[in-house]
Amino acid sequence: MPPKLFVYLSKKLSVPNCKEILCVSWNYNKGYIAAGGSDGQLRVFRLPPESEKNPKSPFHSNQSLEGHGATTRVNVVCWNEVYQKLTSSDDSGLIIVWMSHNDSWYEEMINNRNKSSVVQLQWSHDGTKIAIAYEDGQVIVGSVDGNRLWSKEIGSHLAAVTWSTDSSLLLFGLTDGEVHAYDLGGNFVLKVPMICIDSVELEAALSKDLKKDVIVSMEWFVPAFPCRDSDTRTIVDGAGGPGTLLPRVINSDTFASETYVFRGRVPEDRPRFLVAYQHGIIQLMRNESDTSPVICRLPSTVIILCRWAPDGTVFAVGGYQNDLPEDERNVMHIISAYGVKLQTMKLPPKNFTGFSWQGNGLRIAIVIDNNLYLAYIKPGYKWTYCNQTVVYSYERVDAYEDVMVFYETKMDEVYTRQIRELCAVTAFEDYCVIVSRVDEVGGAYIMQLCNSIGTPVDSKSLNITPLYVAMNATVVIAASQDSFVVWHYTVPRKTALDAYKQPPKQQNDTVHHIDQLKDPKLSDLRKANRPVDYIKSICAGTNFFLISRESGALHRYGLPDAQLQYRYQLGYAAEMMALNCNNQRLAVVTTHNTFRFFDIRENSASVVSNFERRDVWDMKWDTEKEDTIAIMEKSRMIVIQGVEPEEPVPNNGYICCFKDLTVRTVQIHDMVKDPENPDKSFVTDIEVKTLRNAKELLEGMKISEANAFIEKNSHPKLWSLLAKVALNRLDLKTAEHAFVKLKDYAGIRLLKRLEQIQSDPLRKAEVCIFLGDLDAAERIYFENDRRDLAIDMRKKMHDWFRILQILQTSSGAGDDLLMQQAWKHVGDYFMERQKWQTAAKHYEHGQNYSELATCYLMMDDYARLDTLAQHLPDGHEVLKKLGEMFANAGLCEQALDCYIRCELVTEALDVCIRLNQWDKAVELSKKYHLQDVQGLLSKYAEHLTGSNEKTLAAVQLYRKAAKFLQAARIVFEIAKDERIKQAPPLRLKKLYVIGALLVEQYHEQNKAQIAKNKGSNNVSNATIALQGILSEDNTLSMEESKMIDTAWRGAEAFHFLMLAHKQLYQGQYDLAMKTCLTVVEYEDLLDPMEIFSLLALASCVARQFSVCSKAFMKVESMPTLTEDEKELYSKLSLQIFLRYPPKDTRLGKVECTNCDAMIPDYSLVCPNPSCDTRFPVCIASGRPLYDYQFWLCPSCKHRAYEQEIQSYKFCPLCHYEI
């Protein structure tokens, strides 16, 4: 959306002792102005800040620099922004570099070539080099310290010089209109394509006595560098982009300064290189090789000078227009970087020689004769105002995005939102519309309806470019150059502003063309013959909206159908439009800042005669009175009633609203300097003269005169003031008259109540309540000993904080109950704001245990919840809530305690089942004779089948329910299935160990139960164990008894199998053979072929060929072998035993622990038939255990040699920690 930039002349300053000013340059960083003129005059001065008004001294400082000859003309001045040096040159070719010290300027360097005059001086953007272009084609490039870097004769007369963006190229404008680029060494690089001069008609140029190729300005925009030696830095106050206007503020990490200079990024697609020709042609390029530049043509205009604004979004063009009278020829155009002319300002007559921008882009210094004129710029900021909130935007450099700031002026609160690319923003009453670019499938743009804190409440995609946006209570109108869309938005709640029903949704997607005609023939005729007439502005009324066009035509469209109702001819292109509160008068600001009124009827629009204002750049109608409007004219605010203006009020802010006879303005340009920290001082409320006069009369208690004055100047705000004063004086008749004028039914009812009250103090208290002065009403009640009325008043206002204070400082009947109620309401206040700690204190005082429990829960303070539960008596209603809280947190014991204390045993049982606390569930079921928990457990376990993971979950379920045998049975079944599937031995061992440990837990459970029944203090452990075995025999089935007896057998089998492999790979062949002999005992669990093959291998490498021979015999007799396999094993055994006889090479003997016979050290059973003793096996080494002293595992009850187990931290079999 092209923001409306306004420019106007405000001040005229006469430079003393200067006959004629020829050039001017404004220092961006420090604010100095250098002006060169005739008679060798060169002056440097500063303007005072805007806040300092001193007509006697228009200059803050003013110094005349002497160095140029008295007969010369100083025609070139240039600032070095980085090193703060001033360079000047006169027509004799003398160049002087000036430096400052303590705000005074002195000569630093002088250069005089004495051959030709200087056409232009240009410092590089970093301030380290200077390029000097002489008229005769000589170029000198020097450094900041005065050294000459190189010089060159270009070979053609020069007209201008400038540096490229990164100062890597020097571009020279020649007198024939061409532009050449040279590198830093003075070597020619390229010829810049100047398309604009190739398309000029030579005859048209010569007819004006002008050459088509005279370059008057050539500039490359680069944001000004900060001062190198400055003690302060500048804050960015501008940004660029299509559709933006200076200055957009960039929030950067810089220090505050007196001026605010742009330091932001420049979009890649925005032109930044400008070449202006004298005959009114300007070429705008993105780079030196741009083959598709933007060409701007100013017909009948002779350009004197062009200069970029400090933020590069616009540039100013100064010159004179041939087709205007002599005294009106001097003009200045403000043109966007994309070549769109935004504003034209007429300048005073006489000799217009130059101009320069201020660093913040808000003022332009214009030189005419020996006078300095200040033109003020009012940028088109993207901002709006809704519901006491200033909404504005700034651009973050680090994130490359726009930030919307919502500054709530009443509460002084700030809210922000990130927007990708902001296009436009507007508002109506409580809501604002933000239009941004999204480039999504639904549309290139999106309109978001937001409340005053930036929360979106509705949105709409858009496929047209939203250049203009307006809204009313029900619709948003977005328009491009030739089309518009009407969006019927919705808000979360219905309001009294709904003037009609919402139209069908499909109307929101209709794109209306501004010249859409019902007759196709007329439409074709329009396309063929009519010139392009674009949309200029739009505004919305209650049930219609207006579109202004560049030709001065005004179209009226009805709502909600968006049908064209009438075409008016205003005769002026409206830059801004606004309808008054009754939609019958239109205020218009034209492109030349002329302000006019038009009376709008359904079929006519007539200009209000004898009324016109100039230099108007902002306006806002009174929301309640149809003939009053506030306008900003230059640097003052004027209220116009009818057509009569009031006395101007100095103010240069933007108008937020005009309501209750008060105009609110905001200093947006100050606010966006530090956009994240707005200040209330930037917002100003200005009362109109009518309101001030009425207040003076009422303050003087001239009620009758005030009544007559308000009758004459009727306004709701004035009647409200009169009613307030009359009520304070208990003048009921006057108050009733004011309320009738206001149509205030509540006020009339108040008067009826006052008539029924006999006591004047109590009447006064009622008036104070009506006017919102509750403290005064309370004082009156207490003075009249009516504490009860004071409390009732605070109750109606829901001011429980004050009620609590009253109850704590005074006493009365029924205070205890009211005190509890007050504590609760105050606690609710803090609870709604999630201040749980403070709310809990108030609930505790008021004994509001339910809310107190909620606070403890939100604080995750379960210890205090438990304390609260213990504090409550049995049967309290809050115990159930506490039980639910504990249950949801998984705290089963606390939940059971709460449920049982409030006799909710069924809920307690459900909690046990839900939390898988089946042991407690069984105990509860038995104690309170509840439903069969065993059946529930079985049904639940049935669902946990299918995969091993689910089945193991059933194991966990049975284990928690203390059903260890059922859990062990399931584990053994899983192990059996896995064994059939040939799972890894380690997994099988783990499964068998789990099952065996569950059996051990079963034994421990039986012993604990018997000890509990018999009394553990009087019964020995042996007796308990014996009774446990006997009780098991009575209750267990044969299958369960077998499972218990062989619980560790599976774990042992796979443990010794893995141990044998480990020993074999570690080279412990003798131990491996002994372990394999142990593994032979588990043929029912392991593959016999695998067992005896392993034994044969281990005994062979251990050279125990007797054992090896027996192993081979077993292998060859396996029924699973084929005939070929048997033949192979037979050949292998023959090869071994033909070489080695089947005898053991080492025969170790040990003494049997029972019969004292000497037996082989690998015997698991004593070979003596009369003994037949079976020896235990060491689970650490796999050897038979012959020692009388050994280590016994407390968990699995297996044994090991003491010397073997010393190197283990855990039991090798069950992994019990040693």
Automatic annotation (TrEMBL):
Residues 718-849 form the IFT80/172/WDR35 TPR domain. Its main location: cytoplasm. Transmembrane segments: none annotated. Residues 1176-1217 form the IFT121-like zinc finger domain. Residues 1045-1144 form the IFT121-like TPR repeats domain. Keywords: Cell projection, Cilium, Cilium biogenesis/degradation, Cytoplasm, Cytoskeleton, Repeat, WD repeat. GO terms for cellular component: intraciliary transport particle A; non-motile cilium. This is Anaphase-promoting complex subunit 4-like WD40 domain-containing protein. The keyword Transcription does not apply. It comes from the Eukaryota. Coiled coil: none annotated. Residues 383-687 form the IFT121 second beta-propeller domain. Gene3D superfamilies: 1.25.40.470, YVTN repeat-like/Quinoprotein amine dehydrogenase. It comes from Acrobeloides nanus. It is found in: Cytoplasm, Cytoskeleton, Cilium basal body. InterPro entries: Beta-prop_IFT121_2nd, Beta-prop_IFT121_TULP_N, Ift122/121, Quino_amine_DH_bsu, TPR-like_helical_dom_sf, TPR_IFT121, TPR_IFT80_172_dom, TPR_WDR35. Residues 5-224, 265-378 form the IFT121/TULP4 N-terminal domain. It holds the Pfam family TPR_IFT80_172. The keyword rRNA processing does not apply. One of its GO terms (biological process) is protein localization to cilium.
